[in-house]
Amino acid sequence: MIRVVLVDDHALIRRGLRDSLTEAGDIRIVGEAGDYGELRQLLHDTEFDVLLLDINLPGRSGLDVLHSLADHPTRIRVLVLTMYPEDQYAIRALKAGAMGYLNKSADPTQILTAVRTIHAGRKYITPAIAEALAERLSIDDSEKPHERLSDREFQTLLRLSTGQRLSDIAIELSLSPKTVSVYRARVLEKLSLQSNADLTAYCLRNGLID
Question: What is the pTM of this model?
Answer without folding.
Answer: 0.75
